[in-house]
Amino acid sequence: MYNYKHYCKNLHKYIHIVDVCFFTVSQEQIKNLYQRFQQLSGNHEKISRDDLERIPALNNNPIRKQIITAFFDKRNQHQNDVGSLDEIGFEQFLMVMSHFRPVNSTATEEEKVTVRKQKLRFLFNMHDTDNDGIITLDEYRTVVEELLSQSGAIETEVARSIADAAMLEVASTNVPHMAPDDFYEGITFEHFEQILKGIEMESRMSIRFLDMNTATMRCGKLSS
Amino acid sequence: MPSRTVSHGASGRLRGLFLVMVLVFLEGSVFTVAVASSDQHSPITAHSGSHKATDHGSHNNTGKAFPVLDLNYENVRVPFEISLWVLLASLMKLGFHLVPHLSNIVPESCLLIVVGLLVGGIIRGTGETVPPVLDSKLFFYILLPPIILDAGYFLPIRPFMENLGTILIFAVVGTLWNAFFVGGLLYGVCQIGTESSSILSRIGLLQCLLFGSIISAVDPVAVLAVFEEIHINELLHILVFGESLLNDAVTVVLYHLFEEFSGIGSVTLLKGFLGVISFFVVALGGVLVGVLYGILAAFTSRFTSHTRVIEPLFVFLYSYMAYLSAEIFHLSGIMALIACGAVMRPYVEANISHKSHTTIKYFLKMWSSVSETLIFIFLGVATVAGPHDWNWTFVTVTVILCLVARVIGVVGLTFIINKFRIVKLTTKDQFIIAYGGLRGAIAFSLGFLLNKEHFPEREIFLTAIITVIFFTVFVQGMTIKPLVELLAVKKKQEAKRSINEEIHTQFLDHLLTGIEDICGHYGHHHWKDKLNRFNKKYVKKCLIAGERSKEPQLIAFYHKMEMKQAIQLVESGGGIKMPSAVPSTVSMQNIQPRPSTKPAPERAIPQLSKNKEEEIRKILRTNLQRTRQRLRSYNRHTLVADPYEDGLSDLFLKKQKMFQIEKKLKEMNTYLTVPAPPPDSPTMCRARLASGKHTDFKPDQVQKGNKMCSDPQAYSIKPASNKVPMIQVDLASPQSPDSVNLLDEFGQANQQEEEEQGLMMKPPSRPREAKKPSEEDEAKDQQRLMRCLSDPGPSADEDEDGAFLP
Fold it and tell me: Does residue B292 surpass a pLDDT of 90?
């Protein structure tokens, strides 16, 4: 199989990629992901938006659009680049996936903080669509509206009021004292970290599939 | 104590007085109980006593025309004594918190046991027999269910489900291990120590195993009592607590199995195999019974909108029925209760009124805390009551084995579990889990149930069980708090969930499901999502009445949060302090993108000319018009179509109002402190509020805001006040007809209240004086709000609810 050869040829490269972003993962898992990638792309080297949109299980996901966009967002590629790609190769695919790896149990506090920051940054980028470093009220409203979009006839007003209340909360926890004339522009990354410090992001935002110790066998069976 | 009371001054003295009162009462109750118990245990004397009483009565009859004072204690004895015990328990609970620093050092459970010991001692000291208070029937059918239901109903489902695997392994494998380890080794010790004590050598292997299975189960009551005080982080709490709940099935099966075996005396392989099957039947059957009753309860609550008053009763009755039904078949009653409570809660909560919800909450908490108190007191009393057979070898070996088994079990199991967990359990966690394995009254009651014929060693067992309970509750319970501090184990975050966290929790759920789908890997996010979808699509529609069935979780959460804030605000004393959720001056206007229709002219011109005033008036009027329309549609959705929200919208209105009062009060303060207020500030403020309607998230906020807005300003800037009331009157006039409309929707019960609040809206009832006693009004208003919110009178409730129904 040509693609498998291609895969083998590049294996060391992929491992290098994932090593770069502390993404320790077994060869088996990379192989599994690669097979899935092939399946999605229809044995092409690159994957496009349409390929992802065709996944049937994703149809019911209210934030489907944002998830797919995140895959093509250059900001999630660990390079200081902005903008979006039209299609991504397997490397980029791995890069995005690497955001969902669990923290190693042996990780030091520092590593945990870094991982947490990365994960939060990924979320933040999903919200901050125009990449100005701030989640504005409008952006936040969109998020909430999308989140509620699957639940039938929800008036946008309710979604808005929820976003407003959430924004108010952010503003009041981070900038407790504002004069009536001040204007809170939006959530910066620091504030974003602040409001989500209650959620243990480093463990929450991880998928077992990418856990090298445990699920290797199971996943191997599943995706082969 | 006296020196302490002196140092604490007047309040301390009062406290001391109270304690003395409690003590006196304690004595009194003990004596009555003692007397009563003597009656119980010597029926002849009691009988003759009552005879005497009746004789006396008849004698009186002949002597006097009518017995003015008659004594007949026997008639009321049982309920009277029950009330006495409950009262004693409640007063004790109350008393401990009045003694300063005491609750910081010693856990309540220990103190209660000590009180029980004292009471038992006094009863015995008076020469009476101590009543068998911790009777197994009483314990399992009356005292235990409220605690378990409370635990099940308020079970934090998300952490519970996320850690279900770990909890199950600890509960099932851990308990099995403990039972067999303790039982087996104990038998060995008994055999080795034959010559030193001949009693021990008679204890067979089966008896030892039965004893092991009784003593190995971690007790939910004890765990709850201790863990509630140490505020440990959610993960550890749910691990230990979940284990204590779920190991019930194992205990039940082992108990019945070994009891059966030791009764017959022969063990076959087939029976052992049947025992394994019976475990699954007991556990799954219990859960099934619970789920069935839970669904029934949810379904029933769908139709209770006409009779709100009995709503809470359904919750209690169905759960109790689930417990009893499970007990009929020797299934795990505890599992049934937990399943019932956890299943019914989300649906019931959506169906019942908020007041009913509060009632359920308070009743459950009240019952469970009284039960808990009684259980610990009774443990103390039962200890005194005996009968005891103290055997040094047996007791010491039991205590040591329990500790060793627990430590080995936890460490060994964690080693396996950690391979499958994303969040690994650290050594500290393991220590707390092992150390938190407290034993309690369930073990004692099970031991109490043992048949004396099959178990001649029952007394030895009971003594050993009590010792283990005392050891775990006193030594471990008292030291666990300092140890938690010492090890710096992560504590529970006191802050309640914020809306941002809720949004992101849901966002994460969907995100992870999406990523799993892209990976083509069906992990547990995928299945959770499937389950959620199924729940939303079918189950909710059947079990939840009306619009609410379609309400997504986030919106439900939002409403709940609003509600909480409203209540908090009112409870915080009429809104002088802001609720902790919004402890700042930030308001909507700070985060709103500036509306394009910003009323620039008002801002530009500091002085109000006649024209400008007219303009403002016009703007305000149009704005009010719009908000009113929105308000009505808002009402139609939340008030009329959804009768469950009875008090809710009312509260919302009040809350908005309170917020405005808050803000105004603050602003007023600044105006008052600044000698010469900037002439444009009131106008600006009003204009800003008015312009807020384009984006404002609560339309009625504007309305109420405007209404309230004028008052403090009128008060603070007297010179300018001749303008302000005029605006206010014009403001109010288009509003009054609408408020009548509103009233119709609010219904009869609220009419009074609404009219009272509406005083300010209506031009005729509002005097046009420049100086208004607005602060007084506010205070009164707040008082009224507090009253109507804090008064959950059943009749009012009924009226309100009835009125919402078309």
Answer: yes
Q: Is the pLDDT of residue A35 over 70?
A: yes
Closest-CA distance of chain A to residue B296, Å: 26
Q: From CA B658, how far away is CA B290, in angstroms rounded? A: 43
Q: Are strands A87-88 and A47-48 parallel, antiparallel or unpaired?
A: antiparallel
Q: For residue B135, what is the DSSP state?
A: -
Round to whole Å and give the CA distance between B387 and B139.
Answer: 19
Name beta bridge partners: B288. none
Instruction: Look up the pTM and report it.
Output: 0.68
The answer, yes or no, to whether residue B680 has pLDDT greater than 70, is no
Residues 156-185 of A with CB under 8 A from B: 158, 160-162, 164-173, 175-180, 182-184
Looking at residue B587, the DSSP 8-state letter turns out to be -
**Residue B349, Cβ density class (10 Å: 0-12 exposed, 13-18 middle, ≥19 buried):** buried
pLDDT score of B65: 72
Does A147 lie at the interface with B, CB-CB under 8 angstroms? yes
CA distance B629 to B617: 18
State chain A's maximal CA–CA distance in angstroms: 67
pLDDT digits (tens, 9 = 90+) for A69-94: 888 877 777 666 777 777 788 877 87
Per-residue confidence (pLDDT) for residue B24, from 0 to 100 = 58
Interface test with A, best of B505, B562, B590 (most A CBs within 10 A): B590
Q: Where are the domains of chain A?
A: 1-136+185-216
Q: What is the pLDDT of residue B321?
A: 92
Check: CB of residue A7 under 8 Å from CB of residue A34: yes
Domains observed in chain B: 132-488 (1.20.1530), 502-563 (no CATH)
A-proximal residues of B, 512-551, CB under 8 Å: 512-526, 529, 533, 536, 550-551
CA angle, corner B105, sides to B99 and B110, nearest 5? 85
Q: Say what the pLDDT of residue A222 is.
A: 35
Cβ-based neighbour number of residue B462 at 10 Å: 22
pLDDT value at B288 more than 90 = yes
Homologous superfamily of A1-136+185-216: EF-hand (1.10.238.10)
Question: Percent helix, strand, coil in chain A (nearest 5)?
Answer: 60, 5, 35
DSSP E strands in A106-224: the ranges are 135-136, 186-187
Residue A59 DSSP code: G
Residue B323 scores a pLDDT above 90: yes
- Cβ-defined contact of B536 to A195 (cutoff 8 Å): no
> Is the pLDDT at B447 greater than 80, yes or no?
yes
| Candidates B417, B419, B504, partner chain A, best to mutate (most A CBs within 10 A) | B504
Distance of CA B635 to the CA centre of its chain: 31
pLDDT at site B231: 81
Interface of A with B in 2-31 (CB under 8 A): none
CA distance A45 to A33: 13
